[in-house]
Design brief:
This protein has 106 residues and is mostly beta strands. The chain has one domain: Lipocalin, CATH 2.40.128.280. The protein contains no helices and nine strands. It is globular and about 40 Å long. The relative contact order is 0.23.
Length: 106
Amino acid sequence: MPLSLEWTYSKVGSGNILIDYPDHEEGCDKDYVELTANGLYNDVDYDSFDSPCEVFTDSGTYLKEGNTLSVTYDGNFVDTVDILLLTETELKIQNEEGEIALFTRQ
């Protein structure tokens, strides 16, 4: 199943305890991760530090190998997570510290 498209942050936690993603900025679009078909990665975060619903984006590239997803930032920092679930509407990942993130898409 392809990873491409936008995945909205839905829940976070560890083990079997997941809570609603707490960092969506009220009144703004929801934070999301975009994974493009050509391997580009964008983590889009809405915040209202300086102006309402200001967009902050961390970009890089990604590589999916089996059930592992590796994201490279600035050509040198690599963040690797395990894919626990990947369906048409849900992506669930876990990092090395055991933290889980659940993303959804329409």
